[in-house]
Amino acid sequence: MTALLEAKGLKKTYRMGKVLVPALREITFDVADGEFVAVFGPSGSGKSTLLHLLGGLDRPDEGEISVDGISFSTLNDNDLAEVRLRKIGFVFQFFNLLPRLDALRNVELPLTLADLPEKESIKKAEDMLKLVGLEDRMSHRPSEMSGGEQQRVAIARALINDPKIVLADEPTGNLDTATGGEIVQLMKRLNKEKGQTFVVVTHDPAIAETADQILYLKDGMIQKTKKGRRRL
Amino acid sequence: MRLRRIFSMAWENMKQRRLRAFLTTLGVVIGITAIIALASLGEGFRVSITQRMEQGFELDVLTVIPGSFLVGGIEKFNDTEVAKVREVSNISVATQVTRAPRSVILYNGDKNATALVVAGVNFTEFAGEVFPKRFRFEEGEMPEQIENDTLIIGYKVNHPNETEPAFVHPNDTVTMNTIVLNDTSQIFGSYNFTVTGTLEKTGTAGLTSFDYWVFISLETARNIYGNATDLIYVKVPDPELSESVAEGIEDLFPPYRITVVVPLAFIQQVNSILNMVEIFLTSIASIALLVAGIGIMNIMTVSVMERTREIGILKAVGAKSRTILTMFLAEAVLIGIVGSVIGVPTGYGIAHVLSYVITRFAAFQPGWFGDPEAERAAIAPIFSWSWVIIAVIFGIAICILFGLYPARKAAKLDPVEALRYE
Questions:
Q1: Residues in chain B whose beta carbon is closer than 8 A to a beta carbon of chain A?
Q2: CA-based Rg of chain A, rounded to a whole angstrom?
Q3: Residue B261 half-sphere exposure, CB side, CA atoms within 13 Å?
Q4: Which ipTM did the prediction report?
Q5: Do residue A81 and residue B321 have CB atoms under 8 angstroms apart?
Q6: Residue B380 class from Cβ within 10 Å (0-12 exposed, 13-18 middle, 19+ buried)?
Q7: What is the DSSP string of A71-134?
Q8: Residue B368's pLDDT band (boundaries 50, 70, 90)?
Q9: Which entry of A83, A211, B89, B304 is 20 to 30 Å from B286 by CA?
Q10: β-bridge pairing A88-91 and B186-199
Q11: Nearest chain B Cα distance for residue A51, angstroms
């Protein structure tokens, strides 16, 4: 079985003034379709950088990434944006919703970018908000919602285009334990019920416990990989 | 992303920042208003002047004057020269005028009046064919049989003072005292004429106002003043032919022997000068629009900075650079459209107010402007679609031009950097 996501020999170095800071050195791993992958590691270990590379927001200095058989290195910025739109969903620590749009419009945004007719896209967005349990918050703006609710909206937005893979960057990092737990449960449920593939950067052991695969990152390298129980 | 959605999002965005959008748009409104107001007033000014000049001139009548202001030494035309002018091709009619050398005083009983010009004319040619519009009679009419003592009197000669009764009426006999020049000396002559008609006003503009003239028959004038001809009026079938006919006439004479006055050329000159004035005024107004453009650039640059994170989110979700660019340009275009939609009618409104104020001001001014002429001097602003289109296109173009820099800046943002932006 070929992997859904393949990362081979990823290297990335940042320049801070005159100092070169290696963020990633030699990262190689695979994610299979339907897997729930947790990326663990201390601050500054390069977790976020890795996620940005996997999501096509940034390009590696060396190495190769492919998602669903599409190799990123062959794509220009426009095509990469198209891949982000169609194949990848992002969930961020700080939710990153557009503050002036209500929940429904935020979720609908990727469909709008994908030129779906408005009637259809609104219907889909409503269904998606129901799926994450926010049917009574559709016309609320981010400022009128709790952190947990905002993160649910963000997850709904990440899922709206039926992405191959959802990349989450510390999705519970800005939430209290109970709410964070609910978000984890939601992602697990989506993983189980829809077979949605997740790659989650986290500090949260609750996520790691049940992950199919755990990558321990330190100093820009994978220290060890733990394969969990495949539940398919 | 569909353009319609982009525009509706841009509109929503502007609505969220009402004051900012209002102030930015205000700059465009002022620019468009200034352009439209000045252009429509300028156009009105040009048209009113040209119209007045066209009323004052017969555009199809050339005036052939002996001598040239460049050389001097005026020698009148002899009959052979007049005959040659009559032969020039493409003319409808040429008619000669013999004039008294000075102004004359006319006596009617104990009243007298001064005529600045006494012109001996062939009435059929002069009044019937060359200047038919000028010969409208207040009293009397053009006599069927022109006699030696026939006299037609201009309005200002007959009405030196508007409040007093007319100097003469038809069938009155007037005595004309006039200086007659012969080769060696000046002698006075006194002649009697019968008034057959009094003319209406012919207007004050142009070279050929006949209000201060009296007309007698050409034969009588030649008997009194001699056979030389002072002026030749040449009528052409079409004003467009006037240049070529003028050249044809000039070719008959040695250089600087004559001057041909071509009203069309004169009007065209004035017209082109007024055109330049109009363009100049509008260019000044355009500076206002340019300033508005810089305002847009300023506000949008700030806006891009404020929305950096939002741009990062859009990019992360899958928006292409082109989409981001279009989103910001859409806001600039909306500012341009709204500014134009408000600015065009405002501009015309202000032009009408200005025109009203100028007219009132002129009417109450003592002195040279302060007569009923002021009413006629009123400049009505002229609506022209071409100016509307120019102003709107220019307005939107300025908005796009100055919006382009910040919009490109937004489109080029690095998504990772933008997401990190606080």
A1: 1-2, 5, 12-13, 16, 309-310, 312-323, 414-416, 419
A2: 17
A3: 19
A4: 0.91
A5: yes
A6: middle
A7: EGGG--HHHHHHHHHHHEEEE-TT----TTS-HHHHHHHHHHHTT--HHHHHHHHHHHHHHTT-
A8: very low
A9: B304
A10: unpaired
A11: 11
Q: Is the C-alpha dihedral spanning B3, B5, B9, B11 positive or negative?
A: positive
Tokens of B413: 């943002």
**Contact between chains at A81 and B419 (C-beta distance less than 8 A):** no
% pLDDT > 70, chain B: 93
The segments of chain A whose pLDDT lies below 50 read 230-232
Query: What separation in angstroms does the CA of A96 have from each of A147, B227, B248, B351?
Result: 11, 103, 85, 51
Nearest to B318 among A85, A96, A100 (CB): A85
With CA atoms as reference, the chain B residue closest to A117 would be B2
Q: Work out the pLDDT band at B163, boundaries 50, 70, 90.
A: confident
Question: What's the CA gap between B214 and B115, in Å, rounded?
Answer: 6
Using DSSP, state whether B414 is helix, strand or coil: coil
Query: CA torsion, points B291, B293, B297, B298, in degrees to nearest 10?
Result: 30
Q: Closest by alpha carbon to B207, among B58, B373, B51?
A: B58
Measure Cα distances from A7 to A29, A91, B42 in Å.
Answer: 5, 20, 70
pTM for the full model? Answer: 0.72
Task: Cite the beta strand spans of chain A per DSSP E.
Answer: 5-16, 19-31, 36-40, 62-67, 70-71, 88-91, 165-169, 197-202, 213-218, 221-227
Question: What are the sequence ranges of the domains in chain B?
Answer: 3-56+267-420, 93-235
**How many other CB atoms are there within 10 angstroms of residue B405's CB atom?**
13
List CB contacts (< 8 A) between A72 and chain B. Answer: none
A175 contacts A108 by C-beta, under 8 angstroms: no
